[in-house]
Amino acid sequence: MAYVIGVDVGGTFTDAVLDDDAGNIVAAKAPSTPPDYSQGVMDVLAVLAEQLGMPVDQMLARTHHIAHGTTSSLNALVMGNVPPVGFLTTAGHRDSIFIMNVEGRYLGGSPDQLQNVLGQSKDHGLIPKRHALEVVERLDRDGTVVVPLDEESVRTAVRKLLDAGVKAIAVSLLWSFKNPAHEQRIREIVHEMNPDMFVSLSSEVSPRIREFARSSTTVMSAQIGPGLRDYLGSLEGRLREQGLVGPLLVMQSNGGAIAAAEAPATAISTVGSVLTGGVVGAVSLGEQLGHRNIISTDVGGTTFLVGLVVDGEPVRTSSTIINHHPINVPTLEVHAIGSGGGAIAWLDKGGNLQVGPRSAQSVPGPACYGAGGTEPTNTDANLVLGILPETGLLGGRKALDLEAAREAIRVRIADPLGLSVEDAAAAIYAIQNAQTGDLLRKTVVETGHDPRDFVLYAFGGAGPAYCGFYAAEVGVKECVVPLGPVASAFSAYGLASSDIVLASELSDPGQMPLDPARATENFAALEEQVRAAMERQGLDFERIELVRSLDLRYTAQLAEVAVEVPDGDLDDAAMTQVMADFEQRYGELFGEGTGFSAAGVQAITFRVRGTGVLPFSPALPKVDTAIDPDPSAALLATRKVCLDPRVGYVDTAVYDYRQLLAGHRITGPAIIEVPTTTVVVPPEMTGTVDHLGNLTITTRS
């Protein structure tokens, strides 16, 4: 019997899901262990092995592969916890990463920040100027060498960077995506001078046009590359010592995995790995339940994440923004705010109650954890309101301190606002529901979708406690809570469900309709790169699926839209159809008539995404069917719970999910206790258990 394990390392908890080839699924949760997150991984694997009734080494010896998602890369960039990095570029272009193409003044800024023009600054540079040096060389727009690479200038610059103590070097030369020879030679020179130096090349990390975005992507990849290499090397070493035979895979932002040995070379591709696991899991579960349009929502300990699945496919984007800098990484489009279970409630200077984005994380954690935390969080409020049991989390392995939660809320929130502790807790709960609803509107409504056409999936340790309210807030009629063994470890389930996904891209701008032969040649070269990369993964695939796409834009407009391109040799009719598809998609995104067709259409970037389909695809097992809808047999107790401050505390039925069967129908208000999460069925809503053990909450709408 072979196992597949998905491990989701979050800021507060580390989740794991194990699937075998007989359709059995086991899940586990353990506290994360910053700064050495690998210990949390080993801890959660030990919990899995305990549930299987076998030693860890025996479990790992039977494991086909482990798919790992980590926040370490993203956290390092966001917090600026990165080593010193050097930057080499073409003579005369060093200042491009400091000028930031003017974008650095507004990218990633909130509306309030953008309106405060005088308050904007550009003090968020990637590296100090002393670490940005120039080398003599020049290519033209076609990749033709105009000025040969002056290798002595390279050695001089590299020596300065090595003497300055940099831990990695990013290389981004002008037009290098058209001809990478100079960048590749620079890497050879660096390794001649220091064989262990980490080098990141823009022609490999981000072979796209637009100098600033390409350079910022390469620099950020260099910043996290050494740390990712060391972390994955250490983790894989520990796993091998414990008996792992199969490969360790790392989740990428594009919704697929890559071999751990390959990941550091394009480290920037892993920045959203944990964020995308839930969306991949939603696609897998949606196939089992027949849902094509899904809003994937994940409330963990630190963040609230939202992603969309439209017509069975996750919504993708070709870039993202981190710390005001554009990052050229194909990714599943996931929106996030700091509003998880550990989000801290606080008062601003005006005395207004705020929740997040700061989080208590796993250390010290919410006040009720009894680990030194003194600031009130969403988790503390839920305990005071009766939503969480005092017996605690993790199936009782983590007891909760009600008095510590009450004291934190009283000191920081209730007394300053002149409220009772209960009213302050209810206010925290209400604000959490409001701001999660706001992010849903931004993700769904403001992108042109009707929430009534979607089913909402809610997971994570805290998601099921809020989902009924935020689903109703935007008009979603049904909310599915995966209740079986993957209840709060759904992102880890998504990791276990993931295949290998690799992408290659190349900017080769041209006016549409393109010469079909030129387009066919570009796609053929990219497909060859993807297939070669698949072979390096060291895995046997059932099949490899390739999808072509082309980024197009109207001439003189900025917005680029990706359009799929058919397989095989292309002809004039295919190019004309691609252009028509672009115009239709542009109108759907930005409004009919907003495109200026008379200006013409330009092709910018060619892309091929390859999916190596693995032989494992975890499916949730079926549960037994109830004789009738009455869930009384699963009733644990009745306790006072406050879900609406206007009503106050009311006697609320509390159910044990392990006793629920398919067909059981629960009328709100009700609480369903799961060892790793708590589900709230709000008043005037109903929850029905389906054939896979999931709870479908029907909202008031």
Automatic annotation (TrEMBL):
Superkingdom as given in the UniProt entry: Bacteria
Q: Which SUPFAM superfamilies match?
A: Actin-like ATPase domain
Ranges where the Acetophenone carboxylase-like C-terminal domain occurs: 520-691
Q: Where is the Hydantoinase A/oxoprolinase domain?
A: 214-501
A Pfam match: Hydant_A_N
InterPro entries in the cross-refs: ACX-like_C, ATPase_NBD, Hydant_A_N, Hydantoinase_A, Oxoprolinase-like
Positions of the Hydantoinase/oxoprolinase N-terminal domain: 5-193
Protein name, as recorded = Methylhydantoinase
